[in-house]
């Protein structure tokens, strides 16, 4: 009836000795060999990446005599959770033997505000640099990027003096400021790149609507920044949670983060080392960033694509 | 015309970026300025202001350990950046093959990034320890002639550091490069296939050169961490055996805290800033010229 | 009054010892409280202290090693002068040997409190290993080097050492060997006079040669081994001998081993020439600009050196008390050896950081570390370099 | 298979991505030297079909013959096809010359042979002066020629184009359309060309295959498709301004008629496709340019009064909107005619030129 | 300034980015309720001009008056303008309702007033059912309406549109064009509309401002611009298929003529713009639809023989390419005409409908 149907008939008429030609089955080989290679590579690579966790977990479940035998990769002969309990509750750092738990709360106390404040600062920076560049703003940005390369230790001395002169040295606000300072370069870069990819029209539309600097930021830009904020949160949480150097110097005795306690448990100049407790303590300390990672890893890659690649 | 100034320095924008101004000027300019200043003094335990000219720099460059550190950072930097890029790119390429369980693999490759370098160093130190780690384990399993103890030997310890650096950093390189790879126009792949170009060749000659942005980002991140490499060295080798794996950052800290020679430490820190400054200035000039050219061309 | 104390006694045994201080202070009847700030690793703890001082927020007290590390703190006027309570407590009389007191007595003022004496001058060996190898127990380092090949033949590691933490175990070994080779007097002369001649002399070359020999008798796992794993090699009979300070005894004790029977201790690397060092720990107090706090600081200072606290602390720590008028009859045979040796001032070795700056110390450390790690550096080269470092030291 | 003269033959081709079937048992025969255009809305599977022919996608079922050879599982490079992409997919870091020669160099073609082929392609496409430039320094049209050149140097039998003009502006598009047409005339290769622009399809194609939902709706010469669309979709997809569609009913009987509102259009001149005619809801379609106006309207078999609603001058002519049976209705008048909004007019047309579609199936009646 | 009835007045406006001057001492007066279209190729400064009017760019020199008030340094929100962007720039995280009300909420309008205005705008634009949706869940046309609504609720005097249709497909574009036209008729606001699509410009504008390189080339009613372009650029930019341009010479004298090759076209019917006529190189332009063919050609003041080169059927009509004086020449015939390549034909036209441009300056003669 229709032309479309006619074409369907034609090939059938033309099709020659169909019996003679072998049926054109799928051509499977290319698929399997290559695929196996890909998975083999990925699995080997994954094993390489997993070795340390495996060892940490296995070791943390062994007793010290078993560890000294050197069977690093063996599963624990007599699994024991004592090291974990020790690490969390009993391990001594100095005369306090409360394990890691007190430091955990300090770390939370430091990390939460630091992450929030540094991200807020950086996002405002990125926003202002992209949409409201005033004269000299880009020079400031250049200085900031330069700051990303400066070894921390170079500015520690001036920072100590600066903070103590305003009375914030060795205090919770002090450590938060320090983390904000050192997070700012990379985060600002990320946010700037992210905002640069947002159509300017959106900004213009909001200005025509009468919104000003802050309103555009809080009502339009911030709600759109979820992907890059996720990246920033991950970077900052891992960075700040894992930080030891700033924590010990700037946080003050009563705010020492978990890493200081980890350091006390793991390292000792003349004391005895208990690897199983060390490993358990290490895993416990790394747990928070790892958890965040596994929960939001998918977003991380997406956010990086949004904010980093155009660099 | 009268409002022109206000438009140029939009007040809320300036207010909003006060933290940035403070940090950029207050910390990175003034702070670094002080550090440079102290490098010309004889400061020991605490910063002082008795100037001694270039004496600290002369002592610095006469110090064997500093020379070794400088060599090491170049070697470590080149090796680890290259390896991370290559390995990260390989991982990205394989991850890009529409594999199953991509999420799982990605998490595995990325998680080391969440681990602190201290932990990375400790664990690898342990794995590579000939009496407790890999070597002992394989010997216990019957391969008695197996010998692998890179941290013991001054010649190989640096490789071990590079190795741990790869473990920690290649996942991030992978993530960035994967994002770049996914940004490459799919039609380029098709065109190359129609042209009959083998896959590896397509990667090498066509796709990789197209991913400049992603490579640049990954490169910058790696450079930052190379310049700052401290924790990893401290945790894995402590700069040893001997001074074989000493690095400038480690050197600076040692001078400041252990040797109590702040002046020379700041001199070393200033030297560390130089290459960064040169590279940044170079990059700045390049972009400036490119902008000029574009403006002129438009 | 609350008093924050920064120290690096973080391990289980150490914290038990530090608790003795804290308990005594908390119960001194003045409502004082010991606020404990433990930071692992001496370097880290010390730099934290320095940064705190710089930031204008120094702790009430801090642990240091005797030496010149706090010289600048004194000259900078950061430390609390303890002379009045020292006079009251007659520190200059009760503290022995004199050397340990002089660490705190600068220009007639007391600036710190010594709390214990650690001797670095010990070698610990496994009796079963020497039995198995069929060689006699060593009386000196030379004996040991002679016996080492036999131990190696027996499939055991003759010499146990570890290279962690910047190679401090190797530094310790080196200093022990220097003292053993030069003798206390000549060694002190070398360091005080900055004598390049002694430092480049044949004894020093002998030291480097011996060091190279010892390296051959160790295993290749030494690189990052920490001291208690090293000790464990001796305890488990895998290795013959370790050179380590007296805190290693705690490890043997923890493994249920007793001196004389299961393991041997060799004082000063040569039983014939017993020496002890006056290494140990001191506590400094920082000026707080607050009379109440300073009173508490002085109370603590007096308390730290009081006989009861000294006994309690040093028994827990395994070190020697800084005063001779306490009862140490419960100490084990090795400790007895050192208690005896310390009575004779000529047996007392002063710590190197008393003579030379930290900077020079580090240069020596680097030289020794490099020499030990790198077999291509000859003993001659190393001796020459050592002479240069000593000659140029400030 | 492949009787002489058949260049590309697709037999019972199916392709699904997971659960989504994109192509359904599709058949298509392209004659030697023919210019076939695949036309259809976005997402209808045009690119997918082209990629199957090129070997860039593995088919789920069916087979593909090129020059009589079963190439269903051949590598793209072995199929004798060349492909030009929408984004051109030029290798950005290579010069034009490198772009052209890369495939040949990889295949190990001798140097002088490569040079010869590039020279020929450059001459045909008139890109000799551009050979040393990078793609970024080329205009859209020049890029497009380089992309064609890349296929040209490989001396292929079949050219595949995937919307090669859709990234360009209207002016350039018109020019390059002519160029491609001339190129085809010169080379006489088989060409399969994907587009969703009906003007391109109309002007370039020997035959157009209108696709929708992975199925070829109609495969015919452009004028046939334009004048006798097989269903409402095809009718609506082709033509700009678009065909007018009026919903209503057919009334069967000796003098069949189409009724909507109070308008009745006699259908005695209409050539029904379906055997016989029946009453029922249907859609009446007539193109704006087939509507006469004013005097001319009265000469038409059907004429009616109406009022002007909107006048859209388009330069060369003017589109006038009015209502027919209460439904929007447009017709085309010359640019010179000036009409005011609300002006009463008379319009008419010949039902023989109309198309009638079943309301349900949308098929031509 | 600002005589009564002038809605937007732009005086001596200049704007440069760094060293690049984008707008040059530009003057434009828009009457109350007028629909002005800014038409020009990409990069000619249309958006820049619109952004200046909106206050989104700071001008380098000159001033802008809206409703007689100098707004050159006012904030965008205080200018009484509303703007619709090409990408619509809807706030992605807000519902349609929130999108519409954002500006009002910023201004602190009372709640019930906001509700009233939204209701009215939603009714006008027929987007009531969409109010609770997010932009991502809207079709292109719906988004466009919301974007217009955003300006509508703010009750502005002047609507600014920056290529609001260029992201849409042809079909939707045609529909929304009609909608915008109806909206303008209903609201009677001043509208300034940027586009590079000449069909849009022709159908929508009361007056078109054709721009090039930051300068307004011609500002006139669409038909005037179409029929009497002031220069070659304007002539070529408008019209699809494009105007034919033939290079040649004028010959002055009593019976002026245009000569190219061996063809001579009499110009006695041509109305010269320039005082008198002179000999010299010039370009002769005639639109394809003004060329007659076959019998009709002979009725024209000028006729000539030619041969068909390419036939481009475009559905509604067919474009035929031939040569005139050795140069490409196209003309339009009805779709029904079938012509073969190479077929000899006769074509003719009325030189009164042609345009003559100076070769150097490109200006109309
Ligand atoms: N890799 C894929 N996985 C799943 N679905 C796909 C894939 N590629 C294409 N599709 C789907 O197949 C359908 C046809 O896609 P195709 O690209 O062939 O359309 P098209 O006709 O070329 O459209 P356009 O004109 O937009 O290019 C679309 O619905 C698309 O979503
Ligand atoms: N911020 C800027 N800095 C420098 N040059 C600019 C800037 N914005 C626009 N231009 C330049 O100004 C010129 C005019 O740009 P404009 O956006 O007004 O063009 P347009 O006519 O709107 O083009 P299109 O049709 O592509 O939107 C262009 O050449 C452009 O490169
Ligand atoms: Mg497509
Ligand atoms: Mg524009």
Structural class of chain D: alpha+beta
Give the chain pair forming the largest contact, with residue counts.
A-B, 91 and 96 residues
Number of helices of chain B: 15
Q: Which quaternary structure do these chains form?
A: heteropentamer
Shape of chain D: elongated
Strand order of the largest sheet of chain D: 6-7-8-3-9-10
* Strand percentage of chain D: 25-35%
Q: Total strand count of chain D, please?
A: 21
Q: What is the approximate shape of chain B? A: globular
Order of secondary-structure elements of chain D: EEEHEEEHHHEHEHEEHHEEEEEHEEEEEE
Uncertain runs of chain B: none
Instruction: Output the radius of gyration of chain B.
Output: 24 Å
Q: Tell me, rounded to a whole number, the average pLDDT of chain D.
A: 86
Straight-line distance between termini of chain D:
35 Å
Q: Give the distance, in angstroms, between the N- and C-terminal Cα atoms of chain B.
A: 27 Å
**What's the mean pLDDT score of chain B?**
81
Q: Compounds present? A: adenosine-5'-triphosphate, magnesium ion
Beta-strand content estimate of chain B:
under 5%
Topology, element by element:
The complex is a heteropentamer, with 1 copy of chain A (311 residues), 1 copy of chain B (298 residues), 1 copy of chain C (394 residues) and 2 copies of chain D (365 residues).
Chain A: H1 3-14, H2 29-60, H3 64-68, H4 82-90, H5 101-131, H6 137-149, H7 152-165, H8 172-196, H9 200-208, H10 213-224, H11 226-242, H12 245-250, H13 258-266, H14 275-307
Chain C: E1 2-7, H1 12-26, E2 33-38, H2 42-54, E3 61-64, H3 71-75, H4 83-89, H5 91-94, H6 98-102, E4 105-106, E5 109-110, E6 112-118, E7 122-126, H7 127-133, H8 141-153, E8 157-160, H9 168-193, H10 196-199, H11 202-216, H12 227-235, E9 239-243, H13 248-254, E10 263-267, E11 276-277, E12 279-285, H14 291-304, H15 307-317, H16 333-342, E13 348-349, H17 358-373, H18 379-392
Parallel strand pairs in C: 1-2, 1-3, 8-9, 11-13
Antiparallel strand pairs in C: 3-12, 4-5, 6-12, 7-9, 7-10
Helix pairs in contact in C: 1-15, 7-8, 9-11, 9-17, 11-18, 17-18
Chain D: E1 6-17, E2 20-31, E3 35-39, H1 46-54, E4 61-66, E5 69-70, E6 81-84, H2 96-107, H3 111-125, H4 140-152, E7 158-162, H5 170-187, E8 190-195, H6 198-204, E9 207-212, E10 215-220, H7 222-227, H8 232-237, E11 244-251, E12 257-260, E13 263-266, E14 280-286, E15 291-293, H9 295-298, E16 302-307, E17 310-313, E18 317-324, E19 327-334, E20 344-349, E21 355-358
Parallel strand pairs in D: 3-8, 3-9, 6-7, 7-8
Antiparallel strand pairs in D: 1-2, 1-4, 4-5, 9-10, 11-12, 11-14, 12-13, 14-21, 15-20, 16-20, 17-18, 18-19
Helix pairs in contact in D: 2-3, 2-4, 3-4
The complex binds adenosine-5'-triphosphate (ATP) (2 copies) and magnesium ion (2 copies).
Protein name (chain B): Carbohydrate ABC transporter permease
Organism (chain B): Mesorhizobium newzealandense
Domain ABC transmembrane type-1 (chain B): 70-283
């Amino acid at each position: 009836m229709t032309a479309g149907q006619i074409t369907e008939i034609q090939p059938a008429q033309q099709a020659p000795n169909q019996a003679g030609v072998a049926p054109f089955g799928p051509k499977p080989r290319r698929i399997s060999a290559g695929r196996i290679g890909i998975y083999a590579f990925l699995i080997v690579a994954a094993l390489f990446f997993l070795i340390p966790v495996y060892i940490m977990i296995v070791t943390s479940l062994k007793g010290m005599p078993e560890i000294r035998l050197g069977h690093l990769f063996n599963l624990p002969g007599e699994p024991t959770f004592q090291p974990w309990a020790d690490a969390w509750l009993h391990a001594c750092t100095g005369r306090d033997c409360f394990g890691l738990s007190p430091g955990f709360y300090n770390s939370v106390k430091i990390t939460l505000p630091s992450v929030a404040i540094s991200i807020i600062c950086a996002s405002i920076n990125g926003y202002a640099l992209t949409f409201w560049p005033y004269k000299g703003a880009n020079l400031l940005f250049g200085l900031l990027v330069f700051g990303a390369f400066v070894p921390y230790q170079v500015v520690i001395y001036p920072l100590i003096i600066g903070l103590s002169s305003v009375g914030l040295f060795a205090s919770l606000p002090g450590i938060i400021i320090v983390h904000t300072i050192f997070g700012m370069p990379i985060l600002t870069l990320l946010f700037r790149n992210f905002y640069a990819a947002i159509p300017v029209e959106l900004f213009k539309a909001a200005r025509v609507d009468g919104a000003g600097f802050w309103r555009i930021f809080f009502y339009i830009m911030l709600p759109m920044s979820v992907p890059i904020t996720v990246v920033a949160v991950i970077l900052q949480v891992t960075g700040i949670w894992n930080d030891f150097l700033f924590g010990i110097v700037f946080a003050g005795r009563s705010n020492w983060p978990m890493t200081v306690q980890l350091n006390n448990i793991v390292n000792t100049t003349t004391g005895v080392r208990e690897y199983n407790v060390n490993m358990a303590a290490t895993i416990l300390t790394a747990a928070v960033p790892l958890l965040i990672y596994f929960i939001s890893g998918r977003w991380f890659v997406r956010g990086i694509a949004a904010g980093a690649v155009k660099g | 015309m009268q409002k022109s100034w206000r438009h140029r320095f939009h007040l809320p924008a300036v207010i909003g970026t006060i933290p940035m101004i403070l940090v950029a000027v207050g910390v990175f300019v003034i702070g670094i300025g002080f550090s440079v200043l102290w490098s010309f003094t004889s400061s020991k335990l605490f910063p002082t202001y008795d100037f001694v000219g270039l004496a600290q720099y002369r002592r610095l460059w006469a110090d064997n350990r500093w020379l070794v550190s400088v060599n090491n950072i170049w070697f470590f930097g080149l090796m680890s950046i290259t390896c991370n890029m290559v390995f990260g790119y390989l991982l990205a390429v394989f991850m890009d093959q529409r594999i199953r369980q991509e999420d799982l693999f990605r998490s595995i490759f990325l998680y080391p990034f969440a681990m602190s370098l201290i932990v990375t160093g400790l664990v690898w130190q342990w794995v590579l320890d000939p009496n407790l780690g890999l070597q002992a384990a394989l010997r216990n399993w019957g391969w008695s002639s197996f010998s692998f103890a890179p941290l013991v030997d001054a010649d190989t310890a640096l490789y071990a550091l590079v190795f741990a650096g790869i473990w920690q950093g290649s996942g991030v390189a992978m993530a960035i490069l994967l994002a770049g790879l996914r940004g490459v126009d799919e039609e380029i792949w098709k065109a190359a296939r129609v042209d009959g170009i083998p896959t590896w060749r397509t990667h090498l000659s066509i796709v990789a050169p197209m991913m400049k942005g992603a490579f640049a980002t990954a490169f910058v991140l790696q450079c930052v961490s190379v310049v700052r490499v401290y924790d990893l060295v401290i945790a894995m080798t402590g700069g040893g055996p001997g001074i074989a794996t000493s690095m400038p950052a480690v050197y600076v800290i040692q001078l400041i805290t252990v040797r109590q020679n702040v002046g020379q430490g700041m001199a070393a820190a200033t030297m560390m800033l130089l290459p960064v400054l040169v590279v940044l200035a170079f990059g700045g000039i390049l972009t400036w010229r490119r902008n000029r050219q574009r403006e002129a061309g438009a | 009054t609350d008093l924050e104390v920064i120290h690096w006694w973080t391990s289980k045994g150490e914290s038990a010892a530090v608790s003795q201080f804290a308990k005594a202070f908390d119960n001194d009847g003045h409502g004082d409280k010991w606020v404990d700030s433990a930071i692992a690793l001496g370097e880290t703890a010390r730099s934290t202290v320095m940064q705190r001082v710089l930031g204008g927020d120094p702790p009430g007290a801090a642990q240091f090693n005797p030496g010149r590390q706090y010289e600048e703190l004194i000259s900078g006027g950061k430390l609390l002068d303890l002379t009045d309570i020292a006079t009251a407590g007659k520190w200059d009389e009760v503290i022995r040997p004199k050397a340990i007191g002089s660490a705190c007595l600068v220009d007639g003022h007391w600036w710190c409190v010594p709390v214990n004496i650690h001797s670095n001058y010990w070698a610990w060996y496994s009796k079963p290993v020497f039995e198995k190898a069929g060689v006699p127990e060593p009386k000196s380092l030379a004996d040991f080097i002679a016996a080492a090949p036999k131990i190696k033949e027996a499939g055991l590691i003759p010499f146990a050492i570890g290279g962690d933490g910047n190679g401090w175990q190797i530094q310790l070994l080196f200093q022990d060997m220097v003292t053993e080779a030069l003798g206390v007097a000549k060694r002190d002369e070398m360091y005080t006079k900055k004598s390049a001649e002694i430092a480049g002399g044949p004894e020093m070359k002998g030291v480097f040669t011996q060091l190279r020999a010892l390296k051959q008798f160790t295993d290749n796992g030494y690189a990052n081994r920490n001291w208690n794993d090293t000790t464990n090699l001796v305890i488990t009979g895998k290795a013959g001998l370790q050179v380590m300070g007296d805190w290693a005894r705690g490890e043997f004790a923890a493994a249920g081993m007793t001196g004389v029977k299961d393991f041997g201790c060799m004082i000063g690397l040569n039983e014939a020439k017993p020496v002890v060092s006056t290494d140990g720990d001191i506590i400094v107090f920082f000026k707080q600009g607050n009379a109440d706090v300073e009173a508490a600081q002085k109370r603590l200072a007096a308390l730290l050196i009081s006989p009861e606290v000294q006994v309690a602390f040093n028994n827990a720590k395994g070190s020697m008390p800084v005063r001779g008028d306490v009862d140490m009859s419960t100490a084990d045979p090795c400790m007895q050896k050192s208690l005896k040796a310390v009575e004779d001032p000529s047996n007392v070795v002063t710590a190197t950081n008393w003579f030379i700056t930290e900077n020079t110390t580090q240069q020596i450390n680097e030289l020794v570390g490099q020499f030990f790690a790198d077999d291509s550096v000859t003993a001659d080269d190393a001796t020459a370099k050592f002479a240069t470092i000593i000659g140029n030291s400030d | 298979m492949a009787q002489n003269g058949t260049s590309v033959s697709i037999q019972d081709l199916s392709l699904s991505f997971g659960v989504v079937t994109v192509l359904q048992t599709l058949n298509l025969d392209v004659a030697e030297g023919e210019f076939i255009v695949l036309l259809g809305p976005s997402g209808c599977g045009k690119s997918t079909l082209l990629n199957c022919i090129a070997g860039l996608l593995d088919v789920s079922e069916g087979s593909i013959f090129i020059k009589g050879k079963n190439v269903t599982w051949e590598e793209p490079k072995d199929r004798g096809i060349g492909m030009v992409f929408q984004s051109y997919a030029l290798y950005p870091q290579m010069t034009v010359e490198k772009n052209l020669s890369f495939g040949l160099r990889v295949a190990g073609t001798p140097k002088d042979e490569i040079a010869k082929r590039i020279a020929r392609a450059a001459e045909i496409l008139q890109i000799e002066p551009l050979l040393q430039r990078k793609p970024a320094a080329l205009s859209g049209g020049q890029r497009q020629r380089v992309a064609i050149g890349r296929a040209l140097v490989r001396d292929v039998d079949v050219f595949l184009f995937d919307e090669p003009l859709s990234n360009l502006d209207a002016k350039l598009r018109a020019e390059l359309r002519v160029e491609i047409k001339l190129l085809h005339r010169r080379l006489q290769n088989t060409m399969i060309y994907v587009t969703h622009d009906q003007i391109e399809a109309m002007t370039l194609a020997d035959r157009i295959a209108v696709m929708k939902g992975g199925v070829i709706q109609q495969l015919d010469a452009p004028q046939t498709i334009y004048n006798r669309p097989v269903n409402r979709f095809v009718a609506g997809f082709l033509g700009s301004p678009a065909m007018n569609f009026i919903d209503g009913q057919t009334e069967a009987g000796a003098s069949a008629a189409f009724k909507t509102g109070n308008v009745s259009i006699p259908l005695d001149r209409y050539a029904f496709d379906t055997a016989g005619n029946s009453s029922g809801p249907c859609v009446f379609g007539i193109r704006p340019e087939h509507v006469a106006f004013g005097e001319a309207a009265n000469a038409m078999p059907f004429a009616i009064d109406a009022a002007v609603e909107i006048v859209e001058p388009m330069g060369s002519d003017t589109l006038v909107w009015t209502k027919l049976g209460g439904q929007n209705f447009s017709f085309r008048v010359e640019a010179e005619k000036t009409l005011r909004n609300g002006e009463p007019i008379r319009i008419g047309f010949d039902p023989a030129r109309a198309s009638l579609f079943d309301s349900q199936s949308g098929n031509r009646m």
